[in-house]
Amino acid sequence: MSSFEAPKGTYDLIPPDSDTFNAVREALSAPLRRAGYGYIETPAFEHTGLFSRGVGESTDIVTKEMYAFTTKGGTDLALRPEGTASVLRAALQANLHRLGNLPVKLWYSGSYYRYERPQAGRYRQFSQVGAEAIGAEDPVLDAELIILAVDAYRSLGLRNFRLLLNSLGDQECRPAYRAALQDFLRGLDLDEDTRRRVDINPLRVLDDKREAVQKQLVGAPMMRDHLCEACKSYHEQVRELLTAAGADFEDDPKLVRGLDYYTRTTFEFVHDGLGSQSAVGGGGRYDGLSEMIGGPSLPSVGWALGVDRTVLALKAEGVELTPPARPDVFAVPLGDEARRVLFGAVTELRRAGVRADFAFGGKGLKNAMKSANRSGARFALVAGERDLAEGAVQLKDLGSGDQGPVALDALTTTIKEKLQ
Ligand code: HAM
């Protein structure tokens, strides 16, 4: 134990859990790669203004949860609380929208930072795999992304997740709905904080988890009843495409999401085995974000899936991912000359594509064999002075216990044959 611990709300990823994490990242991104999404990586910090303008001044993420700081040079920066604003910023900066076909399809994987109250499934540093399709307004694109997420979860063997779907309208129909909702909310018995929220971000009130608030929301106007014809038809097409692809969803007229940039399609994946932090992923369309951060009009859609919570969801369902590969061969040298020779053999085996490990630290035979067994290797490669004098090493099958000499100069070919 050192005198330090990982900061509150963070945790270390160590084997074997780290292998599960990597397998989940791989599985969540595989469908994207097959669908033509290119990999993008952006800095872990950005100008604070990108998030306050992009994610929204009135969101919890910006007002309460950002790791914002001023550098020694006087620049206001923030650790990224999410990926969408950064990816769009990077695409605009590189002119990707002018250079190639639209939409520009990108995927990413990385750590994000929010100063939230830590609890099970909610961390201050967490990991997402995300996708953004920039510069096209087409219900097929919304459906594509949602289906890719569904397929990603399914490929992991996850079953008990649900897809919640809603439309938040656009600049045509949302303002009138917002005003109607505000009228309704102002007639309720709400605390001061919530009343303030009614003024700034009334849709968020629909998402209030408190029963006392939820009870009063019965009969509140819903966006779905106020959608303009264009939004209604767009949403209907998304719903039909999802149904045709067998991507089951539940219409959730109260789904509003915690970021301000959404328009039209919004969705969330929830898992019922996770308690209060049940959202394993979410996303939607953000047709106005590019203009909000100073770019041209670029209607876009995307999602981010939480890796930490997906791992928890897999655990909750008892899904075991394939364990990481064990070594094929574990070398046990007896004496200095054997250390030199076997280390050479291990290097050659690795170069030939064989997974090989070594008993480091000058262990005696008993301890070294214990390490070999513990590693889960199929074969131990044992050599002492007498073997080397005969130009051979002992190859022991750790499963059957069978052991026999193999000529050193035929070692790699022999092992490769045995492994086939
Ligand atoms: P978000 O809903 O804020 O959306 O986050 C997406 C997912 O990240 C959540 O569903 C959850 O699984 C995970 N997540 C968020 N906060 C935490 C936390 N504190 N601890 C653990 N996991 C967490 C976005 O970030 C949007 N950028 C998604 C998007 C992309 N929309 C359009 N494009």
Describe this entry's structure for a reader:
- There is one protein chain.
- This protein is an alpha+beta fold and 420 residues long.
- The chain has helices spanning 17-34, 48-54, 60-63, 84-93, 96-99, 139-155, 174-186, 192-200, 202-205, 211-216, 229-244, 289-292, 307-316, 336-351, 365-375, 385-389, 411-419, and strands spanning 38-39, 45-47, 68-70, 76-79, 104-113, 125-134, 161-167, 250-251, 263-271, 279-285, 300-306, 329-333, 356-358, 379-383, 392-397, 403-407.
- 39% of the residues lie in helices and 21% in strands.
- It has an 8-stranded mixed β-sheet, with helices on both faces.
- The chain starts with 16 loop residues before the first helix and ends with a helix.
- The model has no long low-confidence stretch (mean pLDDT 96).
- Belongs to the class-II aminoacyl-tRNA synthetase family.
- Pfam families: HGTP_anticodon, tRNA-synt_His.
Blueprint of the fold:
Layout: H1 17-34, E1 38-39, E2 45-47, H2 48-54, H3 60-63, E3 68-70, E4 76-79, H4 84-93, H5 96-99, E5 104-113, E6 125-134, H6 139-155, E7 161-167, H7 174-186, H8 192-200, H9 202-205, H10 211-216, H11 229-244, E8 250-251, E9 263-271, E10 279-285, H12 289-292, E11 300-306, H13 307-316, E12 329-333, H14 336-351, E13 356-358, H15 365-375, E14 379-383, H16 385-389, E15 392-397, E16 403-407, H17 411-419
Parallel strand pairs: 1-5, 7-8, 12-13, 12-14
Antiparallel strand pairs: 2-4, 3-4, 5-6, 6-11, 7-9, 9-10, 10-11, 14-15, 15-16
Helix pairs in contact: 1-6, 1-13, 6-11
The chain binds histidyl-adenosine monophosphate (HAM).
